[in-house]
Batch of 4 targets.
Target 1
Amino acid sequence: MLNPRLSTLPEYPFQRLRELLDPIDPPAAIEPLVLSIGEPRHPPPPMIAEIFAASADLWGRYPPGDGTPEFRAATAAWLAARYGLDNGAVDPDRHVLPVAGTREALYLVSALAVPRQKGGRQPVVALPNPFYHVYGGAAAVSGAESLYLPAGPKSGFLPDITLVDEKTLERTAMYYFCSPANPQGAVAGLDVLKAAIELAREYDFVLVADECYAEIYDREPPPGALEACKQLGDGFDNVLVFHSLSKRSSAPGLRSGFVAGDEKLIRPFKRLRNYVGPQVPMPTMAASAALWSDESHVEENRRLYRAKFDIAEEILGGRFGFYRPEGGFFLWLDVGDGEAAARKLWAEAGVRVLPGAYIGRDDGSGVNPGSPFIRLALVDDPESTTNALEKIVKVL
Ligand SMILES: Cc1ncc(COP(=O)(O)O)c(C=O)c1O
C-alpha cells in the first residue's frame, strides 16, 4: 500500500533527538536552553506586521503561482545588486519563482530534476555529508541513489564534486550544495562554485545551490552561484539558487523565499508547482517585496549574530576545535562523541544541542563524519547564549 521508497527515508534528526533526550530529566528549577533548532529568534522587522495590516483585503485572493510583478521585480533587483550581475541578466518574469520557504522547494526540485533513469541506470543525487535533512528526504523519495560527499575538516568543511568518478557523474541528476553551509558555516569561493557549474553542464545535472544563509555572514558577503555563472559567461544553464527570508529577515514564520536561475528549469518548475499548490499568499508577497528591498534590518541582524560569535569566541576559543564560521549562525564543535555530549549537556545543564551524527550518514566506509560533533544554533539573545556556552564549557 505504501510507496516502498518511504522506507529509505533517512531517520528524522529531531525525532532521533527526542528519542535520545526525552527519557532524561534535565535538572529541575532551571529554564532549558534550546540550541538544537536553527530557528532565528531575533525580532522580525515591524514592517511585516504593518504591511499585513495594510493589505488585509488581499487575503481574499488566490495568489498566482508565479508571484506578483512587485515580488519578482524586488527579488531580481536584489540578486543583481547582491551578486553584481549585469543589468537585465535576471529577468523577473523568466528567471525568478516565489516559494513558500525554501524547504518545500528544495524538496520539490527533486520531482523536477530526477528522472527515472539517467545514462540507462538508477540516477544519483549528490549531497554534502553532513547535510540539511530535507536533501536526504527528497533524494530518497525520488528513487535516486544518494551520494554522500564528505564535508569534514580535510576538505575545508565543503563537499568536492570534482572528486566523483566519471561513471557516477554520468548518472548524477542533481547536486545539493549549501554555502554558507549548514552546519559548518563554510563558504565556497567562486572557484568551487565554477567547478561545480562546469561539471553540471558537462554531465547535464542540476546544481541546486542552497544559499539561504547567504546574508548571515561574518566579514565578507559569500559569493553566489549566479555570480559564478556570470564569470563563466554562459547564462544560468543547469543552475538554480534558493534564497529565503527566514534567516535574512529573521522571519521563519513568514514562509517566504524564492528560486532563481536557468529559465529551462524555472518554466517547468512553475508548471509543476501549479499542480502542487505551494503558493505564497498575497500579503506575504507584499511584505516580502519590501523586505528584499531593504538592507538596514539585515545589517542589524548580522550585527546581532556577530556579537554572539564574539561571545562564543571568548568563551570557547581554543576548545572543541572552535572556529569562527564565515557564514550562517551555527557552531560545529568537535566534542569527540556528539551523542554522549548531547545527553550529558541535557542531563546536567538543561542545554539541548543536536548530535552531529543525526545530520550525517555513514558514507559506506563505516564512518559518519558528523559523529564527533555537536551543532549549536546561536539564535537566542546574548544572555541566553552566554549562559548556554558557559554551561557547555563547565559540563564538557
Ligand atoms: C540549509 C538550509 N536550507 C534550507 C532551509 C529552509 O529554510 P526555509 O524553508 O525557512 O526557507 C534551512 C532551514 O533551516 C536550512 O538550514
Target 2
Amino acid sequence: MAEQVLSESAWEKFSSFVQRKIFRSYRARLNYQYKRGGWDWLAALDEMAHHAILGGYFRFNKKGGTLLDLGCGEGVLQDNIGHENYSYYIGVDLSDDAIRIANERRGNEKTFFYQGNMDKYVPPRKFDVIAINEALYFSEDPLKLLSRLEAYLETDGFFMISMVDKRGDHIWDVLNKHYAFLDENYVTNIKKITWVCRMLKRAA
Ligand SMILES: C[S@@+](CC[C@H](N)C(=O)[O-])C[C@H]1O[C@@H](n2cnc3c(N)ncnc32)[C@H](O)[C@@H]1O
C-alpha cells in the first residue's frame, strides 16, 4: 500500500513536471505553487486590508446575500465576509490545489469551491455580488468577462474588484469607460503596496 502511494506520488510529480516544463501549462504551474505553499502569503496580515474593504462592501450592501468569487485562490475573502453574513458562496479558481485547500478549510453547506477558468466559467445562478479580488489581471479580456457576467448579477447587484495600484491601471482605464464606480478605496500596507478597491454598478 505504502509503495502504491509512493509510486502514485512519483507519477504525479513526473506528470506535473511534464505539464509545467514541456507543455508550459499555467494550471500545472499554479498547482505546483499552491502545493508548495507558494501562495500562503494571500492570508498574511499585510494582505488583510484589501480583503477587508471588499468584505465591508459586501456586508454593508448585501448582508445575507449571495457571492461569486472568481480567482478565489484558497478562499481567503470568505474569512473576511464572515460565514454568518452570506447565504450562498461559490469560489472558482484555475488551480485544482487552491480549490482543494479552499474546500478543506472553508467549504461547508453553503460555501462551495470549484476548479474553473474565469473566462469560461458559467455560473449556475445569479448572484448579488461578483468579486474578482486580485485576479482580474489573469483574465484574457477583463471587459469581455465582466460584460458576460452581467447576466449572472441580480438586477441591483454589483461587481467588487481589487487590484494592485499601477499593475491594474490599464484595466481600470478600460472599465472606467463602461462602468460607473459606486465607490472606491485606496489602501496601502506597511510594505507600501497600494490596492485599488472598487464597486462597479451593472452597465446594463
Ligand atoms: C493573486 S491570487 C488571488 C487569490 C484570491 N482572490 C485572494 O485574494 O486571496 C490570483 C488567483 O487567480 C487565479 N487565476 C489565475 N488565472 C485564472 C483564471 N483564468 N481563472 C480563474 N482563476 C485564475 C490563480 O490561481 C490565483 O489563485
Target 3
Amino acid sequence: MDHVEAGLRREPPTDLSDVGEDVGLRDRIRAEIASGGPMPFVRFMELALYDPDGGYYRAEDPRPGMAGDFLTAPELHPIFGATLCVGLHEIWERLGRPDPFILREHGAGTGALALAILGAADDPAFRAAIRYQPVDIDPRRVAAFRERMVASGHGEVIVTANDSPFDGVILGNEVLDALPVHRVRQRDGRLMELAVTTDTAGQFREVEIEPTTSALQTRLAGESVELAEGQTAEICLALDAWIAEAAAPLARGLLLLIDYGAPAAQLYDPVRRRDGTLRAYVRHQVHDDPYRHVGRQDLTAHVDVTAVERAARAAGLATIGTTTQAEALMGLGIEERLRVIQADPATTFEAYTHLRSSLMRLLDPAAMGRFRVMAFGRDWDDDPAADPLRMFAYRLPTTR
Ligand SMILES: C[S@@+](CC[C@H](N)C(=O)[O-])C[C@H]1O[C@@H](n2cnc3c(N)ncnc32)[C@H](O)[C@@H]1O
C-alpha cells in the first residue's frame, strides 16, 4: 500500500456509501463496551481485523488488488517478486544450496508474491530445492493460494507449514502493519491510552483511559521516546510475540520483513507524526477514521523499525541490514530487468508502459520506495559489512 504524503493533488473521493459495515460485528463491539466499559483501541482493532465472524481479514474474498481496497507491491506488478527472487537465490547460494530450501511466507494473501518468485526462479537446481509454505490468518485464503499455484503449474512445491526446523527464508510483506496496536496520547504530562466507547446514538467515540499495561510506557522509555503534550501514537506490543513465533522454526537462514515504517525517533516525531500513523484503507482511499465501515476497511499503522530490530535480537536473530525498498530493488538489479523486458520483441507497448509506471511507484521515495526492508539471520556466517547481500549494498543505520 502506498499513500502520498507529499501534498500532491488528490483525485476526488469515490462514493463509499455502499461499503457499509459489518452490522453483527459492530453490535458485538457495542455489547462488549456496554458490559465491560471503554474498550482499549487494541481490542477494537483486533476485532475489526481478525474477528472470525466479521473481521476484515476473515472476509471470504481477499482485499488486495485493483478490485479491492489497496494495492501492495506484489499485486502492483510481478517485477517486484521477480527481483526479490534474485535476492532469494543469493541467500540460497550463501547458505550452501540447501535442499529443501523453505520459503515460508506470512500473510501470503492471494499468492501474487509466490507466483512472481516461482515464475522467476529459472536456475533449475534452485527451483527444484524450493518448498513454498503459505501462512495466512484465514484458512480459506491458504486454500485459494494453493489452488492458484496448482492452476499455475507450481502445485508440487507448495507445502503446509509445520513446526519442524528448516533452512530457508521467512518472508512477510505488509503483514506487521496489520498487527493490532495500542493507541496512546500524552495528556497533562502523563501517558494515557485511547479506548472506544459509544455515545447516546450508539456511535463509536474515542476516550482517554489510564494505561491498561505498563508495557506501553516501558516500550517508549526503552526507545528514549518522549511524546509531546497532546501527541497521539501507536505502539505494537504484539510485534515481539509475532517475531519470536515466526522465527522459532528457522534453523539457518533469514527473516525478511518488508513494510512501511521508521525507526522510533522518526516514527514518534512530535512535529511530523503528531497524530500518529493509524490509517484506514477502503477502495483505494485512505483516511484516518477507524470507526467507519467496521470490518469492511483495512486498518494499519506504520511499523516501529527499532522495535522490530529489538524483537528480532530477542528472538536470537542477528540484524543483517535495514534498507529502503528502492535501494533493495536497485541492488537486486531491477533497472537491468526493465531494460531486458524493454528490449524483448515480445513485450507489448501496453505491458511496457504498465511496467514503467509500476516501477515508478515501487521506487518512488514518496510512495513504496521508502518502505523498509529488514533482514535478520540465524546461523548466518557471512560478515555483512565485508560482503553484503546485494539487496543490502546500501544499509540504513541499525537502531539500538
Ligand atoms: C496487506 S495484506 C498483504 C498481502 C501480501 N503479503 C501482499 O503483499 O500482497 C496482509 C495479509 O496478511 C494476512 N495477515 C494479517 N495478519 C496476519 C497474521 N497475524 N498472520 C498471518 N497473516 C496475517 C492477511 O490475511 C492478508 O492476506
Target 4
Amino acid sequence: MTENILVAGGAGFIGSHIVETLAKTALPRIVVYDVNATDKRVGNVVSFKGDVFDSDRLLNVMRKEEVSKVISMVGLASISDCRKNPNRSFSLNVSSVHSVLEAMRIVDAEHLVFPSTAAVYGDVVEPEVDEGVEPRPTNIYGWHKLAAESLIRGYAEDYGISTTVLRVFNVYGDFLMEQGVISAFVRMAFEGKPLVINGGGQLRDFVHLNDVVDAFIKSLGNVAAYHKVINVGSGVGLSINKVAKMVCESFPRTEVVHKSSQNGEYGIFADVSEMRNLLGCKAMDPRVGVPRFIEKCKLTEKRKLLMASA
Ligand SMILES: NC(=O)c1ccc[n+]([C@@H]2O[C@H](COP(=O)([O-])OP(=O)(O)OC[C@H]3O[C@@H](n4cnc5c(N)ncnc54)[C@H](O)[C@@H]3O)[C@@H](O)[C@H]2O)c1
C-alpha cells in the first residue's frame, strides 16, 4: 500500500497549513482536493479542484493518486454560520464526511484523520475536559460534529477503516485567514473601536495553528492513535477578559465595554494527556503565544495600511 495522503479541504485555513508543512517533509505525494483549489502539481503536492460530493471525481483522484490516508478538513467551522444555515452545516459537517468515508471504503484506504471540535462537549460541569466526558453540545455545529464522529465510528466498525478524531479547541495563528476572537479584537482595536465583551470570564483553550498542524501530521498512520478521540488544545484556560487585556497592552488606547452574557460564563479547556501520550505533541502556552500573535497581527495590519497608501 502507498503512503499517499489526500487532504480534502486542503485549501482552507487549517488544511493549507497542513499541506504546506507536509510538503516540506520527505513524505510521498500530498493530494489536495478542494472546491477552491486549482489543478496543478508543485513538487510532491498535486492539487485538484473538486467537490467532495462529486463522488466520481473524488474516486478517480483517489485511485489515480493511490491515496491510502485521508485528512478531511471540509467543514463549516463558524458556530454562528451553522446556526444561520443548518442545511449548509449538515452538508459540510456531516454529509461531506460520509462522502469521504464512502470513497475510502471503495478504494480500500487505510486511515482517516478528522477535525472535530471542543463544541461537542458543550455544557460542561468542570472546565477541564478529557475525552471521556459525556458530550452535551449546545449548538447545531457541535451536534453535527458529534453526528460526524458517530458516522466515522460506524465505518470503522463495519468496514475496518482506521480513524482518528481530533477534537480541536480554539485555533489562532493566521491573522489573514482566521475569524476567531483574538483576530476580531485586534481588528476592532486597529479601527479604534471598543472591544465589546459579553461576559468575559469564560475560559477558552487557545491553541496555536502550528501545534494543530503538528497534531494532524503526527496522527497520520500512527497506530497508537487509531480509533481514538484526542483533544487538541494547549491545556490552559484563558479568559476572554484576559485576551482583551493582552490586546489592550498592545493597543493602549483601546476601550473595553462589558455586557452581560446571555449564555452564562461557562469555561472549557482541554485535558491534553492523550495528545501528549499518543501523539507526542505539546502545544505552546497561550499566555506566551497569544501576546506574540497579537504583535504579529499588528505588524500585518500596519503593512497592509502602508501598502494601501503606497
Ligand atoms: N478553525 C477552527 O478554529 C476549527 C476548530 C475546530 C475544528 N475545526 C474544523 O476544522 C475543519 C477546517 O476548518 P477551517 O477553519 O480550516 O475551515 P475552512 O473553511 O478554512 O476550510 C474548509 C475548506 O473546505 C473546502 N470545501 C468546502 N466545501 C467543499 C466541498 N464540497 N468539497 C471540497 N472542498 C470543500 C473550502 O473551500 C475550504 O478550503 C472544519 O471541519 C472545522 O469544523 C476548525
